[in-house]
Design goal:
The complex is a heterodimer of chains A (178) and B (253). Chain A has 178 residues and is an all-alpha fold. Helices cover 88% and strands 0% of the residues of chain A. Chain B is 66% helix and 0% strand. Classes of the chains: A mainly alpha (178), B mainly alpha (253).
Chain lengths: 178, 253
């Protein structure tokens, strides 16, 4: 290093810059070029293609995953729609069955009511007939009782009354009442 | 270094050797430094290469879809510079991405390795940064003429300016164009050298007991600043390369 003029000057002056020692320039430049070329080849041959590959692969994976997620989402939506449809169908079916059952019950009920009405009417007619019979028989009994009573009363009063006149009188009186 | 300084400074007063760290020495002895001599430059550049390989080749060897730490950093660096090239130079600048990434990684690792105690900072040497800058300058200039022919010269002819001003602007543009490699290289070397020299000066002050605590705190503080500067200078060098490349690919204002 002593052969360098700059270095000598630096030592003499107390402040010299090794940066300005031109004798070392070829050495630095040579090694710099070697270094740059090595780095360049390492990068362009190995590192950069690899990193670009990793990034592309990751991007692809992410895109695929997103697509898969999208697909699953669609499937889920489809499933939900199918479920909703099934639910609506079941509801409609249930309503239909309810309506059917109601109609059936209604017809049965109507028939039953009609039958009951008929029976009631029958019973009413029967009862009315019975009442009429009873009333008629009662009327006869009343007439007979009235005749007998009238005869007894006439006899008790000391009169003699033939059966025919008493009967006609009672009948006339009862008709007048009626 | 401190021992040296103390030994030499026994005559009284402080003796600083802030620039000793930049000396280039042959690794295996001998005074003569030929162009092929393995020197500390060789060693620290080789270490930078090993760091690049370690981060970008070994770090990504697993090729995992979900990256580990090292692979994350490698991908981050890749994405950072890739996006820078794409944003600044446009899609057609992507072709030059490996070249720009090479520059970025070399400068970044050289800067960071230079921050290790007792290390040697290759990027603090103007010879190194000048070669880097001239390589960019020549590449960009040749590329500009190859891609655009003579119309590359329209870079210097500001068509948006008033006609009378254009010749003057052209002169300014041409001067600024040729100053680019100078500023490009001196910015990097100057930042690296100045920071390291300042750290060394403060370390020299640490020999004096009275101000040693302040000096040591200052060293720590400047070291932190230098970590930042190391990254920023690599970033600045790279983004300026991208800007120059954009000028070459799209010279029309």
């Amino acid at each position: 290093m002593a052969d360098s003029a700059v270095e000598q000057g630096a030592e003499a002056g107390g402040a010299g810059m090794p940066q300005l020692d031109f004798s070392t320039f070829p050495n630095q430049i040579f090694w710099l070029l070697v270094t740059l070329i090595v780095i360049y080849f390492v990068l362009s041959r190995v590192a950069l293609p690899r990193i670009a590959g990793i990034l592309a692969e990751r991007k692809g994976t992410i895109t695929n995953d997103i697509a898969a997620a999208e697909e699953l989402k669609l499937k889920a939506q489809e499933a939900e729609q199918a479920y909703d449809k099934a639910l609506a169908d079941a509801r409609a079916e249930a309503q239909r069955i309810v309506a059917e059952a109601k109609a059936e019950i209604q017809t049965e009920l109507d028939a039953e009511i009609a039958r009951a009405d008929a029976r009631i009417a029958e019973k009413t007619a029967e009862s009315e007939a019975a009442i009429a019979e009873i009333r008629a028989s009662a009327m006869d009994s009343v007439q007979a009782v009235a005749k007998d009573t009238a005869k007894e009363i006439v006899a008790a009063l000391g009169g003699k009354a033939d059966a025919r006149s008493v009967t006609s009188a009672v009948t006339a009186a009862m008709k007048g009442d009626a | 270094m401190a021992d040296d300084a103390a030994a030499q400074g026994d005559g009284g007063g402080l003796v600083f050797h802030p620039l000793d760290q930049f000396e280039i020495k042959a690794l295996f002895g001998g005074d003569a430094i030929h162009w092929y001599t393995p020197t500390n430059v060789t060693m620290w550049m080789a270490l930078a290469v090993l760091c690049v390989i370690g981060l970008l080749v070994l770090g990504t060897s697993k090729r995992s879809i979900v990256p580990g730490r090292t692979q994350s950093v490698a991908e981050l660096a890749y994405g950072f510079v890739y996006k820078m090239v794409e944003d600044v130079t446009g899609k057609d600048g992507i072709r030059y991405f490996p070249y720009i990434f090479t520059l970025f990684l070399f400068i970044l690792f050289s800067n960071f390795l230079g921050l290790l105690p007792l290390s040697f900072t290759t990027t603090s040497h103007i010879a190194v940064t000048a070669v880097l800058a001239m390589a960019v300058f020549l590449t960009v200039t040749i590329l500009g003429f190859v891609k655009n022919g003579a119309s590359f010269l329209s870079l210097f002819w500001v068509s948006s300016a008033p006609l009378a001003l254009r010749p003057i602007l052209a002169v300014i543009e041409i001067i600024s164009y040729f100053v680019r490699p100078v500023s490009h290289s001196i910015r990097l070397a100057g930042n690296m050298m100045a920071g390291h020299a300042v750290i060394k000066v403060f370390a020299g002050f640490a020999q004096v007991l009275a101000i040693a605590p302040i000096a040591i705190i200052a060293v720590a503080a400047i070291y932190g600043l230098e970590v930042l500067v190391s990254f920023i200078q690599a970033y600045v060098f790279t983004i300026l390369t991208c800007v120059y490349l954009k000028d070459a690919l799209h010279p029309h204002h």
